[in-house]
Amino acid sequence: MDRIADHFASTFTEARAKFLAAVQAGGARLLSSHANPAKGPSGEDCITDVAWQGPADASRLLILVSGTHGAEGYAGSGCHVTWLQERWFERVPTQDTAILYIHAINPHGFAWGRRVNEDNIDLNRNFVDHDKPRPENPDYVAIAQHIDPSDWAEPGLSAHNRAIAQFLGLDQHDVMCKAMHGGQYVNPRGIFYGGNKPAWSNQLFRQIVAQHAAQARHVAIIDYHTGGGVWGYCDLFIDDDLAGSRTRNWFAQVSVIAEDKAAHGKNAQSETPGNLFYALREILPGKALTLCLVELRTGETGGHDVVRAENCLFQHGNPESAPGRTLRAQMLERFYPARREWRVMAAYQSNAMLVEALSGLSALQCVVAEGGL
Fold first, then answer.
1. What is the pLDDT of residue 260?
2. Which of 53, 95, 176, 251 could join 28 in a cystine, given CB atoms 3.0 to 4.6 angstroms apart?
3. pTM for the whole structure
4. Exposure pattern of 159-193 as b/e (b: 16+ CB <10 Å)?
């Protein structure tokens, strides 16, 4: 267990160093590195690294993304380092299949331990068409002052939460309601802000995918996230409408939540505007796509009230104060549990998921070779 847990890091600089070492040790190759214009908390460069594993001309490609929500990048990075260091790619009998790693697509948020980027933008709400009117969220507008208060203290906080609950018609406020979780494009200092233009990370992601996935005929993506739910559990959201087959059947080792347009429930990924993994439909038109977002679950308590509190700290408080550092530590624990057991569980489930994804992609290549999907 200790060997696997040691593949995870405690700082962005350490995570990047471990990833670069794992790329070399795992038989992959570094393609490029991209420095964000903003610096980390210690003045360090915030860098996105891109690597490739497998045949250079593979027609089947699996894209792995970490750090869309910056602080959640620690888990995704650790899973990818584990996969590379333990040389799992060599254990899977694949044909004409490769992996494109995008490590820390939101490196500033990763380095600062925040979900958002250098402009307080939630990257997973930023991938909308900014040349058109942005999605409206009238629920957020109606109670914005209660969702994003300027003071995170009692008795005002309880009053804000009661106002949210009253607006929702509930006994208590719901941090996963559309007013909060559904994204908003009107308050740059609020939570789940989608921005008013493509963020640096948005532009970089499009550039990377367009450059390195153009030759592939079938592209699958798994965007790594963490969040509330049964501690140590793993959920995989899949939208395979453009895949040419029900590729969700590849997976048996993780809990699959299919993104059926007619059947999805509350807060399905397809209902949240601006998700990164859906951008592949624009970047790679006409290709067979399997779009996945994995959630490594971190426990039932805390919820997005921690996100609200942390946002209030950065917008109206002092992140370097003693209370600020305590809250930031709580925030990181919420999205990246310190227990080594959790990290090992995440890595094991990730390994199983990647084996199934690569096996599924490789099998599709065999089908194509025999006459098409």
1. 57
2. 53
3. 0.94
4. ebbeebbebbeeeebbbebbbbbbbbbebeebbbb
